[in-house]
## 1
Amino acid sequence: MIEGRDPELIKEIIELGGHDLLKCYQCGTCIADCPTGLSETPLSAKRLIHIIKLGLREKLLEEETPWVCVTCGGCEERCPREAEPFEIVLAVRRWQCKEDDTYVPLVLGEIFSHGHTQNVLNPIRKELGLPEIRTVANNEEALRKFREMIKETNVYKKYSYIFREE
Amino acid sequence: MRFCLFLGCNMPAIRPDVELAIRLSLQSLGVEILDIDGAACCPAYGTFPSVDEEASLAISAWNLANAEKKGADIVVQCGSCYSVLKIGRYKLIHGKLEEINKKYLSKVGLRYEGKTDVRHVLDVLHNVIGIGKIKSSLKYSLKGMKVLFQYPCHVLRPSKKVGFDDPENPVVFRNLLEALGAEVPRYSREMQCCGGAGGFAKHDKNANLEFLKKKLDAMKDEVDPDCIAVSCITCLMHMDNVQAEMRKLGMIDYQIPVFDFNQLLAICQGHDPNKVAKIATTPRDAVIRKIVGNKI
């Protein structure tokens, strides 16, 4: 192994969802129409893939650009090799979470507690004459089962400190 | 015709007037709206899908299975809910379904057969209900008004998994606005994303504002529309709220009102604008007055 380079990195990203990573031939179509292009630190799937192919673990770990993605699907649609760059971006996020807990979004705990990322029990709904909400946020039995299911996942087992019953 | 309305998080939490507009406008078109007992977050891309794909598919399957119990397809407005559920379903029925059923859903007495599909509200309006039926439900029209659409990115791409329209030259949104009587002029940045979803706005606020400004400037300079129509809760909140920020910063000196398509539809059908289009940062009163003065 060349110093600082890990050929296993490619396999790890592929296993985490970047299944078609090896199809990429570095043409850069994925960057051409990316909304984040105006940023000083734009997301470049091409660059991420290059880092992965070189096996540069530390460099990949410090990349914050995967989290800038707007999830618009432009790269995914236009990639001439169907390398699925968006899936690779998500796979890199997952890899970073595995390597460094501080990447794990705390909003996971909110979804576990109330079933949603926001408080959906908005009193304005009643004012507007909307029916009572029937999601897990307002259904104790369903919320209990929802949490029970999440407890079966590896995310819950590994990062249990994020999840609270409250 | 029956559909399960998938609410997601932002719509009921922040813009419940859009939820009302969807319910009332679809009911006026003869759709029976069902609520999904025990629905939860889709889960959004920035949450479980960014940490563990299997957990993410389990939660999507949870939502799909609960809708399937009602025996109907899902209709959804939020772009990312649509994308997460539609692509989640694609991944499930192309391989992971039995594994997810066995490892997760069966533990809580649920099962997803893969029958319930996920449809975006634009798709349902255009391809299930149809333009003719929409036209005959109208009491008011957008005649004499210029309206520009903001296509939800997530309904177009990746077209092989989520698409119901041409990904580069889509027609559905234009046809729907024209059905309400609006003029929909073309302009240069028609297909640009709003930039509201994901982490762009949080990570680089300036670039994010500059990005949307390019689009708003093109709208203003090339068309000067009466309003913008969106069909995604993120597009709605972002394009509406960010204009106020831009005016404060001196980046723009105009304002373009933003409506969800179903809000425009519901107003045109005669539903109370004070209810179905109650919440906005950029004032919409002038547009609403114009519509209700346009009796058919």
## 2
Amino acid sequence: MEKENLNLPSRLESVEEAAKAAAKFAANSGFSEEMRYAIDMAVRESVANAIKHGNLLDETKTVELTFENSDARLAITVRDFGACFAVEEIPDPTNPENLLKANGRGVLFMRSFMDEVEWFNHADGGMMVKMIKKRQK
Amino acid sequence: MAELNITERQAGDITILDMDGKVTIGEGSVALRTTIRRLLGEGKKKILLNLGSVGYVDSSGIGELVSSFTAVNKEGGSLRLLNLTQKIQDLLAITKLLTVFDVYESESEALSSYN
């Protein structure tokens, strides 16, 4: 089991930094190019959400990112320190009335590219999302 | 080097934007927005986005494509898409936006569609 932790400031540049760290970790963990693209997408979306919607771009708050690799899967957690939210209340961006909205597709992408995605209210405040990519389906 | 380079060409009254790079949160999305707003300000309302060299788009980039589409429509114009990579096609399928955008695989076909 390999594990890596990263603390990032809440600015947009951190999305790229998180993606680079994810790419390196996933490559070292032997994931295929297609899987690495999926992981990259999910990490970018989840970290961008944490920075923008969780921490509201408040640079005094960090985003905590962990990667944990095992024989069966890669687990990624992203935690912010903002207000909690109910993910089921986010409007479905594929509903016809939402198709032309500029925002609201990040969660859809995270769910589309990863095998499991769950959100938690962290016991010490903020939200945490845990995403799993399995090596084989 | 900029995250997204946009080169502008004219084919009659149609403006073709050859895009090269990433349309992602921050610089890439802003570059597209700025260019579209400028073209609309200049009265250029027939816009063709050539996405053949766009290697990466995230949800923010997809949102910017939608915003550009609605901004151009609002001005009575038309924004169409050319040369989607497989990855972008997949994203538009996931988001059900393939039903919204007019998408073309050849430039001549795309240009003819404006007539």
